[in-house]
Amino acid sequence: MKCDVCGKKIETTFLNKIIGTVIRDEKGKKKTVCNECQKRYTTSEIRTKL
Ligand SMILES: [Zn+2]
Fold first, then answer.
1. Contact 36, 19 (CB under 8 A)
2. HEC profile for 1-48?
3. Residue 2 belongs to what domain range?
4. Counting beta carbons within 10 angstroms of the beta carbon of residue 17, is it exposed (0 to 12), middle (13 to 18) or buried (19 or more)?
5. How far, in Å, is the centroid of ligand 1 from the Cα of 4?
6. pTM summary value
7. Cα dihedral value 23, 6, 20, 39, nearest 10
8. Domain count, the chain
9. Measured over all CA atoms, what is the biggest interatomic distance in the chain, rounded to whole angstroms?
10. Cα 19 to ligand 1 centre (Å)
11. Protein residues with C-beta less than 5 angstroms from the ion ligand 1
12. Domain containing 38 — which CATH number?
């Protein structure tokens, strides 16, 4: 799984949860965002980058 903002690989935990978050764009498509991008940008900033 890759971050849709920076393109880096997103690691998963042993429970198979991604280390990061999933947000939906305006079309309702799921986008994965790594922890670093989540910290660096607000959700609305991330939406403008997707
Ligand atoms: Zn990222």
1. no
2. CECCCCCCECCECCCCCECEEEEECCCCCEEEEEHHHHHHCCHHHHHH
3. 1-50
4. exposed
5. 7
6. 0.85
7. -90
8. 1
9. 31
10. 10
11. 3, 5-6, 34, 37
12. 2.30.170
| Distance from Cα 16 to the centre of ligand 1, integer Å | 18
Residues shown for the chain: 50
Q: Is 49 helix (H, G, I), strand (E, B) or coil?
A: helix
Distance CA 4, CA 24 (A): 11
Q: Which residue has the tokens 């198979």?
A: 16
pLDDT of residue 2: 96
pLDDT (tens digit per residue) in 17-46 = 999 999 998 899 999 999 999 999 999 999
